[in-house]
Amino acid sequence: MNVLIVYAHPERRSLNGAINDFTVERLRANGHAVQVSDLYAMNWKALLDADDVRERRSDAPFHPSLDSKHAFENGLQSRDIEIEQDKLRWADALILQFPMWWFSMPAIMKGWVERVYAYGFGYGVGEHSDTHWGDRYGEGLMAGKRAMIVVTTGGWESHYSPRGINGPIDDLLFPIQHGVLFYPGFDVLPPFVVYHTSQMDATRLQTTYDALSKRLDRFWDDAPIAFRKQNHGDYAIPQLTLRAELAEGESGFAAHVE
Ligand SMILES: Cc1cc2nc3c(=O)[nH]c(=O)nc-3n(C[C@H](O)[C@H](O)[C@H](O)COP(=O)(O)OP(=O)(O)OC[C@H]3O[C@@H](n4cnc5c(N)ncnc54)[C@H](O)[C@@H]3O)c2cc1C
């Protein structure tokens, strides 16, 4: 299988750097082909702007989504965007690896998503009708591929527990797992979270590697998170609300998992 790891940390000699090296080695040892988009090393341009479109009239107002659509359809996207899209086409699986910064991914990785997920590629795919609201949330160009987050946190596991002050980890990762990954069609595996990173030492790192190895070895066998698909009857269209008889009494993120 082909695995793309999109990785964001400014220092290679970090815990994240060590985990990234380990992940690549383990996947390759298991016979997989691996590419790493090391966003800081690539000096990835994080800002979505008019420079993302080649041969653009400089006097026309820049429209982030319509310019993206035009560039994607006409082969006018900036080359760095096209290269990352090709990596995604090549990949059977995507791993997003990052330290949690301010309860989300580092800005450079958010910029990778914003620019690489062009209109017609990450969103704006498929037909809109009374029964089908675009190919998204379980359908889309990434359908059939798997994805997983590998994230490190300064906070302890208890801080991210159901009643922890940071909020439950599943809730915090929902915008990435459901919004960024499930939306364009990925099957999303449960995340691999390394908590309380200030307490890391060689012994604990070995335990972390052992646990990560198990996850990587079962990557194509583990059940993905059972997010509800948009166009399979669970949601009223076009309201896109969950039907009243499903997950009765539940609301919020958890209601979108079967
Ligand atoms: C801007 C910012 C925002 C943040 N926001 C949040 C937040 O919202 N929530 C939250 O929980 N945390 C937050 N943090 C903390 C952050 O998530 C952690 O600092 C980060 O996950 C640690 O990962 P690292 O790769 O930078 O670790 P490092 O700092 O590189 O290492 C962490 C520990 O692991 C040890 N270590 C490193 N490499 C090895 C190795 N090879 N072998 C053995 N030990 C090793 C180091 O000695 C150190 O003790 C934030 C930090 C920043 C800078």
UniProtKB/TrEMBL annotation:
Q: Which InterPro entries match?
A: Flavodoxin_fold, Flavoprotein-like_sf, NAD(P)H_dehydrogenase_qn
Entry's family note:
Belongs to the NAD(P)H dehydrogenase (quinone) family.
User: In what residue span(s) does the Flavodoxin-like fold domain sit?
Assistant: 1-215
Question: What are the record's GO terms for cellular component?
Answer: cytosol
Question: Keywords, A to Z?
Answer: Oxidoreductase, Plasmid
Q: Which GO terms describe its molecular function?
A: NAD(P)H dehydrogenase (quinone) activity
Concerning PANTHER family, the annotation shows: NAD P H OXIDOREDUCTASE-RELATED, NAD(P)H DEHYDROGENASE [QUINONE] 1 ISOFORM 1
Protein name (Swiss-Prot/TrEMBL): Putative NAD(P)H dehydrogenase
- Pfam families in the record: Flavodoxin_2 (PF02525)
> Which superkingdom does the taxonomy of this entry point to?
Bacteria
